[in-house]
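[Backbone geometry]
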Amino acid sequence: MRACLVVLVSVLSHAGVVVVASPPIPFAVASSSPVRPLAPRSLESTRERLELARLDANDHATVGGAAIASAGAANAQPDVLERRPRDGRRQLAAAPAVRRLRFHLDSSMLGEGATSDPSACTHVGMRYERGFPTDDGRACGPGVLTDCISYCTTDDLFGEAERARLIALVQAVLDDFDYFAIPVGDDAPLVLTKSAGNHAWWYVLMGLGAVEERCARDCALLSGYHADASLCETGVPNSDVIVAIRAPHVIAEVAASASACHHAANGRPNVVVISWHQSLANLLEGSLADLVERYEGLVRHELLHGIGFLLSEFRKAGLVERITMTDLDGDVDADVWSFKSGTRAHAAAQQHFGCDDPNMALPLMRHPEMGRDQHWSSRAMRDDVMAYGVAKRVSAITLGAIADLGYYTVDFNRSVCLHWGRAQGCAFVATLCGAMVHDHSVSVVGPEACLGLSTWTRYADDHLDDKCAFGADPCGAAAYNAATSMCNAMCAVDEAFGGDACVLQNASVLAFHADHDADDDDEDDGLYLALFWTQILVGMLSAWGLVFAIFVRADVGEYRAV
């Protein structure tokens, strides 16, 4: 990936004031503080990269020492300037009547028998591009996932049988994806917007086309989803979110990807695009039930990315902060995003880890670089669906993170408890499994009930072996105390540990919500008023401001490696 940074600087000559003005394109500011690199770190969606670049710039733009939002934010998604709750408590208190989030599956990009996706493979030998290839036309391959060229093979092609299986798989997962609800509104259809898009000038600069209005244009240019014109006219009835699926081409290192490309007036994502990057021939094996068993964790993972599990969303909601973490082996990372104390996600994590320190870190993923910041750290939350690996458990911690965004009412009773890290204490989180203990806190019927999850032994993880005190499989003989029949909490299998742990965890999260509802209202009023007038000031001063233009080259889609 190449990035061309053009900086035009104008600094007010008095009082040390730096004012930022921006066209609707991303930008970044040089600083001694940690800044998200422009170099590729993952297959993040183009929109996510644009949002993160804008947020980085906002973090470093100051008026009188206070962080401000750029004037260009007016051209970004509408949630940027809205009086939006930091963690959803205001919205939930004001809208007690809710309904389950309703999904409409759009399979039009898979075509009828033959693909209708212009970027997908139609025949062997067809040349295609991922992202924005460099001038030397480098070939896609191991470690080169974007900004490259390649040629279609038989693995990239699919027919009606594969198409039908993918549709059936995603629909089956959607039918059971009932974790979220939104306030009851009118029964009007979900109608998308016809516009030039939220990044129209960036499209021009990148050579993606002149400024023109089109139905859900951002979806076409950022996510590869070409919405039918009728979606901006009559729309889709009885729906809150369109889930579009596509199968453009196989990427060996990536299973699937997802991005949100269109949003409701309050910023809630209402178009999610899932791209399947494995050979669809794999979907023909076994029954539909077998298919769901194999892939439901992956589809859930991508859906959660699409509806809001993204670093940009967490940052806009004020839920995360940068911290420095040091491993016991001396490795230092000064650019770690961690959930703040006072969020639902943090409260649920404290209960899970058995850590009552309000300053406990709850970091997003540090390793590997591909996918960094967009997932939970596997060293802390290996079993969670939003960590890397094969997990499918949707924990109260993940549901808390989504609830904290303020878009949804969340059913925490649908959560599933995690094993990895359970009751391991504050040091476990602070060192990301570098410090582990034999707590022997759960009574079990014998050593066979103290083996942890079978996936820990089934799937190797060299990174956990290197970093974790007890390795990737911590449930050896020492995890069970034969004299007392007590087992480490993280190693006790579900049948032994029982369902009470999840009940306790959910109760702690819900109690946290109730205790903090009233306290937040007065605090939020002052905060939102200050932000409102700060942004008005930015707009007034923008004519003398600082203009940045970044030519960001990136591929489309959040991904999940398996």
In short: The chain has 15 helices and 21 strands.
